Amino acid sequence: VQLQASGGGLVQAGGSLRLSCAASGLIFNRYGMGWFRQAPGKEREFVASISWDVGHGDPDYATSVEGRFTISRNNAENTVYLQMNSLRPEDTAVYYCAAGLRSWGTMSRFYNYWGQGTQVTVSS
Fold this sequence. Notes:
The chain is mainly beta. 0% of the residues lie in helices and 50% in strands. It has no helices and 11 strands. The model has no long low-confidence stretch (mean pLDDT 96).
């Protein structure tokens, strides 16, 4: 299984980025997907998650990103996205995508596989 995250970069505060996570080696439509982030000197934290099936609930967001970030998925392309708008300097972190077999949520333990991370830097 491979999860390849991309789309990170340097952006000014108030700007936008779209992260992508391409999955391979798994049956994508059986996996809930999540985004987490880790800033320097801090623990990894939950950002957003989405079920493998739209019938299993709406996407979930950390309070700090709700209304600014949107998670979505394209099962035909085995890809999950994180659209990040109105970025703030405190959003600076390495962003990781994760896949959970018929599992999703805010806790790391719900996920079986992790990507390598992509750096997001927001300047003030």
